[in-house]
Each structure stands twice: as C-alpha cells, then as structure tokens.
Amino acid sequence: MFAINRRRSNPRWNITENLAGYMFMMPTILVLGTFVVLPILYAVFLSLQKVRLLGGIEYEFIGFRNFTRLAEDERVWIALRNTAQYVAIVVPTQTVLALILAVTLNSGIRGKNWWRILYFLPTVTSSAVLTLIFMWIYNTDGLLNDFLTFVGLPTYNWLGDPSVALKGIIIMNIWSTAPFFMVIYLAALQDIPKTLYEAAELDGANGWKQFIHITLPLLKPVTFFVVAVGVIGTFQLFDQSYIFSGGTGGPNNATLTVVLLIYQAVFRNLQMGYAAAIAFLLAAAIVAISLIQRRLFGGERI
C-alpha cells in the first residue's frame, strides 16, 4: 500500500498515468473533433462569408450580413412557420399516441407480440418508400379520397392544395414515428414495480387513479426524452417535404421547411454562407425549445 502511494506521488508516474488516459481518449477526441467540432467551426466561418463556387471557390468576408438577410427573407419566415406548425402538431400527438399504444400492449392483451411487430413495421420502413406510398394514397383518385367519398365526407387534393398539403405530411409522420416511441414507453412501463400498483389497489385506487398518480409521474423522465427526441427530429423534416413537392416546397411554399430551405440555398442557389446562417437559426430554435422542455419536464433529474 505504501509503495502504491509513493508511486502515485511521483511526478513521473502521474505524467505517465495522465498520458495513458489521454491515449485511451484519443479515438473519441479525433472522431468528435473531425465530425463535430471542425464542421461547426467551418459553418461559423461560412456564415460570415460570401462564397463563390463557380470557377473555383472564393471567400469574401461580409460579417453578419447573412444573418441580417434572414430577417428580410420572406421564405425564411414561411419555412419557420411551417416547421413550427409541424412540430406543434406532430410532437404532442405522436407522444400521446405512443403512450396509449404502450399502455394497451402492456395491459396483457392477446397476441401482443404480433401487435408489437405490426405497430413497429412503419418505423423500420424506409422514409422515402413510405412517402411514395402515401403519395399514391393522397392522389385525387387515391385510396384516401375513395374512403372519404365512401363515408360521405369531402375529398381533397392532398398534393396540390396549399391548405392541406402539410397536413398530409403530418398524418404520415405521426403514423410512422409513434411506434418508435411506443417501444420506449413500453420498456419504461415494464420497469415500473408491480408492487406499487398492488399497494394502490389495496388502498382502493382504480385503474385511472393508478395511471394518473403512479404511471405518469414515473414516466416523466421518459416523456422528457421522447418529447426532446421528437422535437429535434421534427425540426429536421426534409425528405418527406422534398419528395412531396419535388424539392420546391410547394404548392405555394406550403411544405417548405427550414432544412429544405437550407438545401435549396446550397444546391440550387449556391449560397453556402447564407445556408450556414439558416442552419444556425435552426440550431438556435432547437436549443431554445430543448431548454424549455428541460424546465417543464425536469430533465435535469434524468
């Protein structure tokens, strides 16, 4: 014991020990530095530049002009409004639906393993494939309008009407993403001790009171995680909007999202600096919403 303490007090031993620790950390540091830190720093650099791509890459420092341009660009505000509407509808709905499905499967219904597989299929299916299937369903003579006609409800031009185009994407994404969060809730439900429910039942609490006073409070950290992941994912909506509109964000910018606007700025308008500024606007929105969620759900206790 005395020899070990003497070695640790030796400066050479401490240097060797620290060096060994940094060597073990080096792979992680290199990966994070290469794929996280350097891209962020380069994005900061681009956001302050006017980049010319044709005839060779040239940079011209313009300061914060790209950021001031954001406030003047009407399409930025349209994209923010569409994205905010999408997030505000999809996240609460998919969270509640996922919880309902998880509670149902956890209640001991027959064939619950088959129901799990059936519910989870949309999650493991390619997003592009799902979008193409729903485009077929949303056609004016597609399955959805046929069903609405059959039950006597009005039909819509889901792909061409600006008032309903985004709603079509919302319906598709709720259906395809809720099963993923259902699995997370289901795992959390099965981790709750059954003795708590047994004690509550002895005290005369019915199923609803047990759900309100036991299940929901114990699921609070999981709900924070589900909502946080849902918000980050929905703010990054791109592929469905791109496929639905052919990359235009139409009809009449109804499906234009922030990420799609970044894509257009880079690959159509060749405005790398402006695209980086939009990306930082998106990042700021995600961070702000995440901090609000942390405050509401007590995420600091996770």
Automatic annotation (TrEMBL):
GO-annotated biological processes: transmembrane transport
Membrane topology: Multi-pass membrane protein
InterPro entries in alphabetical order: ABC_transporter_permease (IPR051393), MetI-like (IPR000515), MetI-like_sf (IPR035906)
Localization per record: Cell membrane
Any Pfam family the entry gives: BPD_transp_1
Sequence ranges assigned to domain ABC transmembrane type-1 in this UniProt record: 80-293
Keywords assigned: Cell membrane, Membrane, Transmembrane, Transmembrane helix, Transport
Gene3D superfamilies in alphabetical order: MetI-like
Gene Ontology cellular component annotations, sorted alphabetically: plasma membrane
Organism of provenance: Nostoc punctiforme (strain ATCC 29133 / PCC 73102)
Official protein name in the record: Binding-protein-dependent transport systems inner membrane component
Major localisation: membrane
Family: Belongs to the binding-protein-dependent transport system permease family.
TM annotation in the entry: 21-45, 84-105, 117-138, 164-188, 218-238, 272-292
